[in-house]
Specification:
This protein is α+β, with helices and mostly antiparallel strands. The chain contains ten helices and ten strands. The strands form two sheets. A six-stranded antiparallel sheet has the order 9-6-3-8-1-10. The protein has a four-stranded antiparallel sheet with strand order 2-7-4-5, with no helix packed on it. A hairpin with a 2-residue loop joins strand 4 and strand 5.
Length: 307
């Protein structure tokens, strides 16, 4: 048989956890917090003061910023401002590495965005797509045609979001090539990604960094340095995020008790697990499980007027 084109299996998961397009109040603020997701924030109108990891960035109309997973950040506006933002998560390690290793999180309105146009155009297209979906009434599942129509509209938005995240990664990748302190070498990327894969495969085992370094045949300090450089997180923080993600899966897709999940993830006790989970999500496992919709996390806490 003569093959003209072959390609291995392709799988890449992307999740958007809540989207907001809203106007803030006078002297509005949201306290410092962190979570396991990336966060994209775009200033539509006004001025937004965004603190990320101790650095203050001032966003004007047309500016955007990306908060890395696990990075402490806070927001405030002295006067009413309009923003568009969403939290997201990607499983592709190369994309995670690029986003976590971004040198400058700010995307200026004057900066070249992508070959598809400006970031303002891209955001406006997303807002239009979400508004169109919101205008479609939720139909009874028994109404097959209407239900399928909405499902296809949601699929179209997912495609737009995936393209947007791809442009976001390309933007930061190009940025890193122009910055001397940017991404590491291909060898460092490969090492960090292999370490990440091993961490995810050993999610149900205690973390032993020295054993991980021995398995990869590198010095422990060098491994930690490379991983931090590529992912922007320590090995322990990455492992903590991975365990949190796995815990969320069990909390939403299984009937396992809190104690059973804590045991599976090698926590010393259910209490320790609850403390860890709340630190990374802002909710207890019980509160998270009782949520009817993931879109309430964590953007639902913003006290704003929705447009």
């Amino acid at each position: 048989m003569e093959y003209f084109l072959t390609f291995p299996n392709m799988y890449s998961a992307f999740r958007m956890i809540g989207m907001n397009y809203a106007r803030t109040d006078i002297d509005w603020s949201y306290p410092k917090h962190k979570h396991t997701y990336f966060e994209f924030l775009y200033c539509v109108e006004g001025v937004i003061e965004q603190t990320v990891g101790g650095t203050i960035y001032e966003l004007h109309s047309g500016d955007a910023i990306v908060m890395k997973a696990g990075s402490p950040h806070a927001s405030r506006t002295a006067k009413p401002a309009v923003y568009f933002g969403f939290h997201f998560d990607v499983e592709m390690k190369a994309a995670v590495g690029i986003l976590q290793n971004a040198v400058l999180p700010l995307i200026s309105s004057k900066t070249k965005w992508s070959k598809n146009g400006s970031i303002t155009t891209a955001v406006e297209q997303l807002i239009h797509a979400f508004r169109s979906l919101q205008d479609r009434p939720l139909s009874d599942p028994s109404e097959t045609v209407s239900s399928l129509d909405r499902s296809l509209a949601e699929l179209s938005i997912q495609a737009q979001l995936l393209e947007f995240i791809t442009d976001l990664c390309r933007f930061f990748f190009e940025q890193s090539k122009q910055t001397s302190s940017g991404t590491g070498t291909s060898t460092q990327f490969a090492l960090a990604h292999e370490a990440a894969s091993l961490l995810e495969a050993a999610i149900h085992e205690p973390l032993k960094i020295h054993e991980l370094a021995e398995r990869l045949n590198v010095n422990r300090s060098y491994l930690s340095e490379c991983f931090k450089k590529i992912y922007g997180l320590s090995l322990r923080s990455y492992w903590a995020q991975t365990r949190t993600r796995e815990a969320k899966k069990w909390l939403t897709e299984s009937e396992l008790s809190i104690e059973q999940i804590a045991d599976k993830l090698q926590f010393s006790s259910a209490s320790h697990f609850c403390q860890h989970f709340r630190q990374w999500t802002g909710l207890t496992p019980h509160q998270f499980r009782n949520q009817n919709d993931e879109e309430n996390l964590p953007t639902a806490n913003y006290t704003t007027t929705y447009l």
